[in-house]
Amino acid sequence: MKRRGFIILVFIFMVSLSACGKKQQTQEEIPEPMPMEELSKLSTEAVPMSQKEVVGGQAATGAPLEPLPPVTSYKPTSQEIQIALKNAGYYTGEIDGKIGPLSKKAIGEFQKANNLKIDGVVGPKTWEVLSKYLNPVVDTATAAKKKKR
Predict the structure, then answer these.
(1) pLDDT tens-digit readout, 31-47
(2) What is the pLDDT of residue 69?
(3) Counting CB atoms within 10 angstroms of each CB, which of 69, 98, 113, 121 has the fewest?
């Protein structure tokens, strides 16, 4: 039993020694530090214009800043598209989650009415306008009158 423990201990010791056998860099292989002028030159070239320091509404270069487009990664479901189109008054079909000819026609009509590119596809620009109809604001005065009838 003592012999097995000794063999295991020697084995662990040998494994740990072999893991420490990394090659160390010699003095010649270590790169020289860069001067500050080169570092500052690299840092201003590597940063895109939108991330440079802004001074009074202009980039550090003096060029006026352009607004960045909104970042939207949300892709609406077919049902959401149909509901929004129905709420907007362009879709009269059943909310079935299938974008068929009736849905495509409604999308095209909506795009035409909102001065969007008419392609029958709900892309980011179309969805930006159409999404406002997903949960329409209910006019409480009109809703109250309908309930009284």
Answers:
(1) 777 777 776 666 555 54
(2) 55
(3) 69
Distances from the Cα of 89 to the Cαs of 84, 85, 136, in angstroms?
A: 9, 6, 11
CA-to-CA separations, 42 to 53, 57, 69, 105, in angstroms, rounded: 15, 24, 27, 53
CA–CA separation, 84 and 95 (whole Å)? 10
Query: Which residue has tokens 């909104």?
Result: 70
Phi-psi region of 62 (alpha: psi -120 to 50; beta: other; left: phi over 0): left
What global pTM score does this model have?
0.46
Q: For position 94, which CATH number holds?
A: 1.10.101.10
pLDDT, position 130: 92
Q: Give the max Cα distance, the chain.
A: 97
The tally of domains found in the chain comes to 1
The domain in which residue 104 lies consists of: 78-133
| Tokens of residue 3, six digits | 């012999």
Residue pair 58/65 in contact by the 8 Å Cβ criterion: yes
